[in-house]
Amino acid sequence: MRLLPHILTLLRLLASPFLAWLIIQSRFIEALLVVCFAGLTDWLDGYTARRLGATGELGIILDPIADKVMLVTLFLALTYDGLIPLWMLALVMGRDLVIVIGSLLLWTFRNVKKFVPSITGKISTFFQIVFVLLVLLHAAFPLTFLFWLQMLALALTALFTAWSGFGYVRLGIRLTRRLPA
User: Fold this and answer.
1) Model pTM?
2) What's the rounded Cα separation, in Å, for the pair 137 and 100?
3) In contact, 78 and 26? CB cutoff 8 Å
4) CA distance 169 to 81
5) pLDDT tens-digit map of 133-166
6) Are residues 46 and 20 in the same domain?
7) Full residue range of the structural domain in which residue 37 is found
8) Do residues 142 and 113 both lie within one domain?
9) In this predicted model, what pLDDT tens digit does every residue of 67-111 receive, in sequence order?
């Protein structure tokens, strides 16, 4: 029973390739259902881990990886399908690449081991999730108001992704100026 949170997280991780296939096949309603299932398992794995006292290092590592794999899969598949502009994919992936490379450099050269997401980073992730959901919704149900919501989410996602990226770069520069530990 204590493995249930990890099993739920693994299900979410394994759903990502299936989700990409659904999007490429233009099966957007089914893709929305998979995303809803993933959201439910994300909530359930956290809930069951706390309830069963099964929080541990595996869950701490695996849960955010499953979330990021799902989000990256959505961006890649929706861009491949022509539903997200290539520049948005480049912005989102570029920011994440800067964060990962910066974190590795700080860990290697400055022994910084704890990386807490910034508020703008969390807001950026929120808008990225809202954006891909609206893209999927509009693809499944091509209604005008969904298109305009998608365009608004595109603008806000671009704004907060760029803003948080600059914030992480500034933070990285500040941390490199500290004396090595």
Assistant:
1) 0.89
2) 30
3) no
4) 31
5) 999 999 999 999 999 999 999 999 999 999 999 9
6) yes
7) 1-66
8) yes
9) 899 999 999 999 999 999 999 999 999 999 999 999 898 888 888
